[in-house]
Amino acid sequence: MDSPQTLRTLGALRAAVASGAVLRRTVKDEIRQNLMRSLRAGDTVFPGIVGYDDTVIPQLFNAILSRHNFILLGLRGQAKSRILRGLGGLLDEVIPIVPGCEINDDPLAPICSACRARIALEGDATPVAWLRRESRYVEKLATPDVTIADIVGDIDPIKAARGGLHLSSEMTMHYGLLPRANRGVFAINELPDLAGKIQVGLFNILQEGDVQIKGYPVRLPLDVMLVFTANPEDYTARGKIITPLKDRIGSEIRTHYPATRQGAMVITVQEAWLDRRDDGMSVKVPTYVREAVEEIAFQAREDKKIDKRSGVSQRMPISSLENVVSNAERRALAAGESVAVPRVTDIYAALPSMTGKFELEYEGELKGAESVARELVRAAVANVFTGYVESANTAKVVGWFDSGGSLQLGDMAAASEVIEQAKKVPGLLELARQAVAGPSAPAPETAAAVDFVLEGLYSLKKVARSDERGYHSVEQRPGPRRPVRQAEEDFDEDVPQGRKKYYN
User: Fold this and answer.
1) Do the beta carbons of residue 397 and residue 427 sit within 8 Å?
2) 437 close to 430: Cβ distance less than 8 angstroms
3) Which of 82, 225, 357, 382 is the most exposed place for a label (fewest CB within 10 A)?
4) What are the DSSP E strand ranges found in 184-248?
5) E strand or H helix that includes residue 424
6) In the prediction, which pLDDT does 441 show?
7) Is residue 26 within a helix (H) or strand (E), and if so which, with residue range?
8) Which residues make Cβ contacts (< 8 Å) with residue 153, sequence separation at least 6?
9) How far apart are CA 461 and CA 479, in angstroms?
10) How many domains in the chain?
11) Environment class of residue 428 by beta-carbon count within 10 Å: exposed (0-12), middle (13-18) or buried (19+)?
């Protein structure tokens, strides 16, 4: 038989089902069997999901094969919503429905009164429509103001008056999101934010197939897979999942952040907007810059000044890398260069994309979000730098600064200017080319490598740097040093506390 969408009447559909040309099954069986076929064929079931192959994905497969409703527990930015949306790919391409039905009724087993009455009247001549898989995934973000009418439905008095119906009739019901997801997947994000009485309506209609609307019992034996997401902290603090609903959720699957820097880089490159070719400009992001951006998130997740309960989303390195590239573009445009190569110092220009991505503990609040972010960048660069450059190889460069040398580089300096300045420092250009860029690297890449070496030495506290990008010895101090005075003079009791004199 050709595509099932050629079937246009209930009679033709009955014949196709009887011959086996069209399968008739529940949503959970449909998803289960399609998953089995994909696994047998070796297909990628959830494209774009990275780092979960040995942890989350096997548990997810087990839940689907068990025909469970399930919940994904994880901190923000752990691809929970993306996984749920991927369930739509396990649905059949099309399914038959009664045309015009708000709840996608099965023509062979309708559950709403209107469809049953229509089929009883028209018989095998009843028209059949086909619903595509994209329309069978319904998602709702739970908020405290969501009502039972939003989720399940409500009585429509106008419909009752026009049809001369009693208010307790199913024909008077205006369906909510859950019934409209019938024969599909219904996802609720941030489940603990949903009011307890709404959660009661969910488990009741799923388990017993009935619900009370304005005091009237309504039978709705829905065919739906129900899936949820929640933050583990919200699970017990901001809200809670009522016990009867938790009991009816078959599997609880915990997500996590990427375990390795390389895995995180794959996610960031996949999600970040880096393909910029406007006005003939091209972008080439060095690997060490990608690593440094990614390492910031890893450092933040371990930093005591950052609230671990709220997490540090993978969106932070994604947004940061986009800002880093934009700053490199801006510099290349000003310098008339055709290739934008981001430098490590461009990461500091991306601080606005970081400070809103983490919550601070009390100690962090005292320092301020920007100061904490700068510390994270410095720690990340130091960590990455030690993987590229051995400490012994930096002695010649550090020695030049220790002997009184200084180097001034602007954030907007062109690649040629950076290279010319680097020639003043014995061994700097050679170290940058040998460790990072390569001997025949173009000027923008060589300049970025020089910047990486200088910032790496600064991050390891082997050289000092001013806010104006002046590199000098860690022993140097701007301006003349002031003598140390006696403690009695510095802390004279007659001097107001706000005007005590401190000397270095």
Assistant:
1) yes
2) no
3) 82
4) 184-189, 210-213, 216-219, 224-230
5) none
6) 86
7) none
8) 173, 174, 175, 176, 179, 213, 218
9) 20
10) 2
11) buried
Neighbours of 44 (CB within 10 A): 9
* High-pLDDT (> 90) share of the chain, %: 64
Domain that holds residue 457: 386-504
**62 and 206 together in one domain:** yes
Residue 86 lies in a domain: yes
CA angle 74, 351, 238 (to 5 degrees): 30
Query: Which two tokens mark 305?
Result: 């000044």
The answer for residues whose C-beta is within 8 angstroms of residue 464's C-beta and 6 or more apart is 458, 471, 472, 473, 474, 476
User: Is 436 within the bounds of a domain?
Assistant: yes
Q: How many other C-beta atoms can be found within 10 angstroms of the C-beta atom of residue 38?
A: 15
Q: What stretches of 177-306 adopt beta strand conformation (E)? A: 184-189, 210-213, 216-219, 224-230, 251-254, 282-283
Q: Which of residues 222, 254, 286 is at a domain's end?
A: 254
Q: Is 426 helix (H, G, I), strand (E, B) or coil?
A: coil
Q: Which of 110-114, 205-209, 456-460, 467-471 has the highest mean pLDDT?
A: 456-460
CB 457 within 8 A of CB 435: no
Sorted by sequence, the CB contacts under 8 Å of residue 184 that are 6+ apart come out as 27, 91, 104, 135, 136, 137, 138, 224, 225
Q: Where are the alpha helices (DSSP H) in 175-231?
A: 177-180, 196-207
pTM for the structure as a whole? 0.84
Residue with the two structure tokens 């960590």: 383
